[in-house]
Amino acid sequence: MSETECPSAKACTQSREGLASCEELAAIFRALGHPARLAIVKQLASQEEACCGEIVNHLPLAQSTVSQHLQVLKDAGLLTCDARGRNCHYLLNREKLQQAEHCSKEFWEHLNSLAATCSGASVAASDSD
Amino acid sequence: MSETECPSAKACTQSREGLASCEELAAIFRALGHPARLAIVKQLASQEEACCGEIVNHLPLAQSTVSQHLQVLKDAGLLTCDARGRNCHYLLNREKLQQAEHCSKEFWEHLNSLAATCSGASVAASDSD
DNA sequence: GTGTCTCATCGGTGATATGCGATGAATACC
DNA sequence: GGTATTCATCGCATATCACCGATGAGACAC
Q1: How many domains does one find in chain B?
Q2: A125 belongs to a structural domain
Q3: B83 min Cα distance to partner chain A (Å)
Q4: For residues B128 and B118, what is the distance between their CA atoms, to the nearest angstrom?
Q5: Are A45 and B22 in contact (CB under 8 A)?
Q6: CB contact set of B15 (below 8 Å; sequence gap of 6+)
Q7: Which residue segment(s) compose the domain that B63 sits in?
Q8: Phi then psi for B127, rounded to 5 degrees?
């Protein structure tokens, strides 16, 4: 039974900086972590741009709620707003989206590569640490 | 005047079901939408499995808080818990993670393909920024 | 000017998230 | 038996989210 005692009395190795490195990706995930916002992004991808009213009509939500979701996406940099007359046309920020996609991909690849690395020699690794 | 009036007086075309299709991916994004949880997932990828104490030592958070984050990830299906003695070993749910990665990839590809479809005609708009 | 349309923002409400310390159950060790 | 360790859970405080209706600003039509 003494075989798998965890060395848990160590000092904290990952402090605020450790978390900070995750913050950018986490912010993207958080912004996309709501069905309505995902739906908005998808809609904008499919029709290039849309005014707020159009987006509202595609969602079972009040205009004010949709406007707030749009604000969240805008704050995250995922879309931009182009005011024209009394309409406000929203469009995706391709640059930011590509960057987000890149971050996301990198994350998954990171997971996969680490998984591949250690699942081959998994058991040995745990006691060496 | 009539140039860019939005046809916004339409009925709502995307009701609850429309949102429902986004819910699965949104749930994954939401679970990963916190720096601490991202850090936990990364850590588990790098060392295959870890007990709660180890994870706590890698984060600038109290044990109870980390335990809650672990619960969130567990609820999302991203990791599993394997109780051994008084230790509880957490490990990533590879299957779910691959599924999540797939969903995520599909999402980005969907965006890109739609973007490619309609942005052929719209380059002028984007470079103004 | 008035009226209408579009949209952001305000204020309020209820739910959820985030964090902590305290506590208790289960296990391991003596 | 007693004690220590590990971890989940409870209780609480605070912050943020999600949603709505109401309101107001700006643009347009007349």
Answers
A1: 1
A2: no
A3: 12
A4: 18
A5: no
A6: A60
A7: 24-115
A8: -80, -5
Find chain A residues with C-beta within 8 A of B115's C-beta: 45, 48, 92, 94
> Would you report the helix, strand and coil content of chain A in percent, each value rounded to 5?
65, 10, 20
**A87 beta partners:** A84
Indicate yes or no: CB of B45 within 8 angstroms of CB of A115. yes
Q: Which residues does chain B have within 8 Å of residue A16's beta carbon, measured at their own beta carbons?
A: 60
Q: Return the CATH number at A66.
A: 1.10.10.10
pLDDT, block means (10 residues), chain B with 129 residues: 42 55 90 96 90 94 96 94 88 90 89 68 39
Put simply, whether A114 touches B (Cβ < 8 Å) is yes
The order of strands in the sheet holding B87-92 is B49-51, B87-92, B79-84
Q: Does a structural domain hold residue A128? A: no
Distance from CA of A75 to the nearest CA of B (A): 15
By CB neighbour count within 10 A (0-12 exposed, 13-18 middle, 19+ buried), where does B110 fall? Answer: middle
**A74 close contact with B: CB closer than 8 A:** no
CA distance B12 to B10: 6
Q: Tens of pLDDT along A39-96?
A: 999 999 988 889 999 999 999 999 999 999 999 999 999 999 998 888 899 999 988 9
Angle between helices B35-47 and A94-120 (to 10 degrees): 30
Q: Tell which residue, A86, A115, A29, has the closest CA to residue B98.
A: A115
